[in-house]
């Protein structure tokens, strides 16, 4: 059994992180499929607004409710294994969240019926990210699945996704919001009536009154909200959860990995491994290829020779990057150990479950390019201090 397979059998939650354009959504779905191939009930969740998960799975539509893909995979998944997929509906999740926390029907009506609710649910920084974690928490609490793979939004700061919910929690601590809702400030609010009317004239009739009403209603659920956030964070920091970085074989991946390892330690997260996607190092050039290229070049058709030269150059650059990544992981061995996998550049993009199954087999070691350096096993990262 490979190191990845061991992790997929042990973890209940896997978070995949990475910048945009590296194939993170495809790898996330392939990780869930690999877990299903190992006989586990797996579900993959993506909060990618581009809906790439549905594209990677060859599905016309995926929604907030888990969709069972197991029957479509036939013999790819053994008896007992299952693959499900979810694309959370942020507004629906947020509404359900508010319903569950509202202390009374009246408070719920004040929140849900307020025009500011629509703006807050759609635009407020951290809402989408928190709702994704809330969806994760809801699915985990049902014990319906053995493992959940959460495909986090692409971000230059690869773990910034986990910081965003903190922005939402600070909404309740903001002095302006507390000033708006504090009963002691009612007299002051009356005294500010003239200024508020002027602002309301600029922002739209009823805006400020709606804001005060919405803030007051939502402020009532701040304590349950904080408790819910603490529970989600505890899950992410538990032995049940690990994080995987998906990256491209580019020079800037090395500093990204260094930052990622440090961020994982600071947050008390378990770093499970690195997947370098779309690599060229696994493509072998034979003497027959080179002879054919030379023959065509002599006949006035240098395209193949030029293509092979470009491929050889890419492989040389990639080899140095992979060596640097291996060195970076070796230096981190005092803090953690992890798998290091390469997924070769495929002949076409992943648009069907058949394509995805191929990636899953590669991740599991069937037909994969050998990872450089020594094999690695999972070990939990410990927070500093």
Stretches with pLDDT under 50, minimum 5 residues: 184-189, 368-385
Number of continuous helical runs: 17
Provide the helix percentage.
40-55%
Largest sheet: 8 strands, mixed
Global outline: elongated
CA(first)-CA(last) distance: 34 Å
Alpha-beta content class:
alpha/beta
Overall mean pLDDT stands at 77
User: Using DSSP, what is the number of strands?
Assistant: 8
Secondary-structure element pattern, one letter each: HEHEHEEHHHHEHHHHHHEHEHHEH
Widest beta sheet: strand line-up:
3-4-2-5-1-6-7-8
Computed Rg:
25 Å
Tell me the β content.
Answer: 5-15%
Structural account:
This protein is of the alpha/beta class and 385 residues long. Helix content is 51%, strand content 12%. The protein has 17 helices and eight strands. Strands 3-4-2-5-1-6-7-8 form an eight-stranded mixed β-sheet, sandwiched between helices. Strand 6, helix 14 and strand 7 (271-279) form a beta-alpha-beta unit. The chain is elongated. The chain starts with a helix and ends in a 22-residue tail after the last helix.
Q: What would you say about this model in short?
A:
By secondary structure, the protein is α/β, with parallel strands linked by helices.
What's the arrangement of secondary structure elements?
Blueprint: H1 3-10, E1 13-17, H2 24-37, E2 41-46, H3 52-56, E3 67-68, E4 82-86, H4 90-101, H5 105-112, H6 115-123, H7 127-142, E5 147-151, H8 164-170, H9 175-181, H10 186-191, H11 193-203, H12 207-219, H13 222-236, E6 241-247, H14 253-266, E7 271-279, H15 287-298, H16 303-331, E8 339-344, H17 353-363
Parallel strand pairs: 1-5, 1-6, 2-4, 2-5, 6-7, 7-8
Antiparallel strand pairs: 3-4
